[in-house]
Fold this protein.
Amino acid sequence: MKPPFIITVDGPAASGKGTIAHRLGALYDVPVLDSGLLYRAVGVLTQRAGKDLDSEQDAGAVALRLTAAMLDDPAFRTRGAGECASRVAVHSAVRLALRELQLAFAHTPEGAVLDGRDMGTVICPEAPAKLYVTATPEVRAQRRWKQLRGQGEQVELAEILADIRKRDERDGGRADSPMVAAADAVLLDTTEMTIEQATDAARRTVEAARARWETS
C-alpha cells in the first residue's frame, strides 16, 4: 500500500511558509499542521503556570499534557508566544513529547501538509515533497511588523528585526533538531515575491514531486 502524500514546508519565522502551507492544504484538500503552534502553546502554558521556560523539566511536563483540543487559545498567536516557543523548542524533552502527536497527524491516509522547522529533516524525512521557505531577515521583520500592527500590537520594526535574528540563531543553533533545510528540499526564497508568486512556485514544486510519487 502506497504511503500518504506528505508535503513538508520548513523555514524561519515570517518567511511565508505558514500561508503557503495553508494554501497547499486547500489546493490538495488535506489537513495542515502548524507545528509552531504546538511549541507556542507549550511556551505560553509553561509561562502561565509560573514555570521556567528555560527548564527542560518544566516545559517537558507541559508538553506531555498538550492535546489538539487545547490549541484554540488566541494567546498562542501573539508576538510573545513566538518568543516563548523558541525558548522551549530547544528542549529535547519538549520535542520528544510533541513528536508522536506530529507523526500521528502526518500519517493520516489522505496525506497532510506539515509546517515547521524540522518537518522534512526529523518528523517526516520520507516525505515526497519538501520545501524550505526563506527570505532575508529584514523582509521577514517587515512582514511580521505589519502583521502585528494589524493585530493592534504597538511594536517597533527594529525590535521585530532583533527578535527575528535572535530566533534564527536559537532555532538554527539548538542541538536537537535544528532548523535546517533537508538535503532534498527545494529552496524557495520569497524575498522578492508576492505571496501569490510564492504559492505558485510552491505549487509547481509539489506538482513535480506528486508526479514522481504517483509513478513510484
About this structure: The radius of gyration is 17 Å. The longest helix spans residues 195-215. The chain has nine helices and five strands.
